[in-house]
């Protein structure tokens, strides 16, 4: 991993959160964010990680975070960008991309998406999955 890579982590479970009935599942949200980010930030370096809260990895930091979800402090799926929470529960594109900031690549579409996530006017930002 390079120092300037962006790490996007989604914590979730196969079962949909009771507060998110009718919303996409955690794994769907994870895959949707991967696709959306790949389309909008083609020149940037991203790493994606999915953490199954029913079977967390043998990592104290991740297990502690999972415990917060089980203690009802957070709704899943929880989306983190570089270990900072940017969305929980029903994830909208604008929220899911909010921690990314300005793209480093020179793709014109990147700048358009960045401007849209900072303000209003980009129709895709107002839709859930």
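^ Assign residues to that structure.
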């Amino acid at each position: 991993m390079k120092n300037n890579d962006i790490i996007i982590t989604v914590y979730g479970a196969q079962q949909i959160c009771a507060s998110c009935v009718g919303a996409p599942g955690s794994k769907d949200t994870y895959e949707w964010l991967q696709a959306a980010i790949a389309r909008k930030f083609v020149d940037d370096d991203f790493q994606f990680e999915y953490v199954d809260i029913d079977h967390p990895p043998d990592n104290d930091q991740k297990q502690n975070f999972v415990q917060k979800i089980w203690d009802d402090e957070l709704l899943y799926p929880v989306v983190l960008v570089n270990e900072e929470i940017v969305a929980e529960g029903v994830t909208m594109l604008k929220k899911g991309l909010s921690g990314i900031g300005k793209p480093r690549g020179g793709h014109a579409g990147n700048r358009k998406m960045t401007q849209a996530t900072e303000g209003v006017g980009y129709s895709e930002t107002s839709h859930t999955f």
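The chain has one domain: 6-126.
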